[in-house]
């Protein structure tokens, strides 16, 4: 049973990859460029990148926290037992685009000292159980 699920759509990455992919494909199809094949390859690479990263989904259940990008080929699963601590933080606008400036910082028990992960959450108090 999922206790928490949040999906964040990457509108900026969608438009910044989709528009050039379409323009390159149109130029490769209807243009007279000698590099038509290269333009098509770039267009396909941009569309694959778009499919891999257009959204971020965080799910938490009794056993694990799972973060997955796009269609789910790139994902990370962390056992709840590996989470040493968590708490709400504020994300500055210059750290990147997001739906909210509220986030949850996770401290993981691992071999690297000081490793942490920040997840931007619409309702961080619900995510961390407060």
Features of the shown structure:
130 residues, alpha+beta, PH-domain like, 4-stranded antiparallel β-sheet, 3 helices, 36% strand
Q: Summed up, what is this model?
A:
The protein has one domain: PH-domain like, CATH 2.30.29. Helices cover about 30% and strands about 35% of the residues.
Describe the structure.
By secondary structure, the chain is α+β, with helices and mostly antiparallel strands. The chain has one domain (2-127): PH-domain like, CATH 2.30.29. Helices cover 32% and strands 36% of the residues. The chain is built from 3 helices and 7 strands, in the order E-H-H-E-E-E-E-E-E-H. The chain has helices at residues 11-30, 36-53, 124-127, and strands at 2-9, 55-61, 64-69, 74-79, 83-90, 102-108, 116-120. Strands 1-2-3-4 form a 4-stranded antiparallel beta sheet, with no helix packed on it. Strands 5-6-7 form a 3-stranded antiparallel beta sheet.
